[in-house]
Design brief:
The complex is a heterodimer of chains A (about 80) and B (about 150).
Chain A: H1 3-16, H2 41-55, H3 61-66, H4 70-83
Chain B: H1 7-11, E1 24-29, E2 32-38, H2 58-81, E3 86-98, E4 107-118, E5 121-129, E6 135-148
Antiparallel strand pairs in B: 1-2, 2-4, 3-6, 4-5, 5-6
The chains are: A mainly alpha (about 80), B alpha+beta (about 150).
């Protein structure tokens, strides 16, 4: 899967959980999921579960802790995919 | 007739009167719980909901489903991994449908079924039945459950 394709897939997942005052165009690789995109902890779990399904990977507690920004999420997805 | 092995769960519930909506647990396992609650005839909210026509508010049916179906299950699931002193919980979503009214002094039975418990988020399908075993409400509830050991 191309990097751009993966990024788009991740953005599509995040988009579903954005609060009303955040637009999909606000998402960048540097966006902090909770602080910039205003995603709450319950929806962060939903994003992780959707990522698991979409990329057919499994994330652990430490991955969740390390997943602060969109870029972090990309890096974790890449690492899990290459470990498969 | 509560199974003695479930009383520790009730002891750890972070609620008290007038906002405790669990009387007994009759079944608890890793996949779900089943519990009972009788809505007390003299509860204060009946004087205002509705005027001269007491009916249990839907939000309290939801709360009862959450306390039995979600929180009691969460306490059971957490205990397997760890000891805890302080439980922190918050409801994160509720989608409920209400099919029948519940009147003062009715006893309801809540049955919950685990959807998932991951990364401190617990999600369940819940159903509430009345005395006649008719479905009163059903839905999906989720909450965040964590513990602090100080």
């Amino acid at each position: 899967m191309l990097k751009e394709e993966k990024y788009q897939k991740l953005k599509d997942i995040i988009q579903v959980y954005l609060p009303e005052d955040v637009a999909v165009t606000d998402i960048s690789k540097d966006s902090h999921l909770m602080n910039n995109l205003n995603i709450n902890s319950a929806n962060l779990v939903d994003i992780v579960l959707d990522v698991e399904d979409a990329f057919e990977i499994r994330l652990e507690n430490e991955d969740m802790e390390n997943m602060q920004t969109v870029g972090d999420a990309m890096a974790i997805i890449d690492a899990k995919l290459s470990a498969k | 007739m509560m199974n003695e092995s479930y009383s520790w769960i009730l002891d750890r519930l972070p609620y008290s009167e007038p906002f405790l909506f669990v009387d007994k647990l009759i079944q608890v396992d890793d996949d779900g719980v089943e519990g009972l609650y009788r809505f007390k005839e003299n509860a204060g909210f009946y004087t205002g909901h509705f005027k001269n026509n007491p009916v249990t508010p839907g939000v309290l049916l939801t709360e009862c489903c959450a306390q039995i179906g979600l929180v009691c299950l969460g306490i059971h699931l957490l205990e397997k991994d760890t000891m805890f002193d302080d439980l922190r919980i918050g409801m994160s979503s509720s989608q409920m449908e209400f099919l029948l009214p519940v009147f003062p002094d009715e006893c309801v039975r809540v049955v919950s079924e685990l959807v998932y418990f991951r990364f401190q988020k617990l999600k369940c399908n819940v159903k509430m039945y009345n005395d006649e075993d008719k479905l009163v409400c059903k839905g999906t509830l989720a909450g965040m459950i964590s513990i602090t050991n100080e």
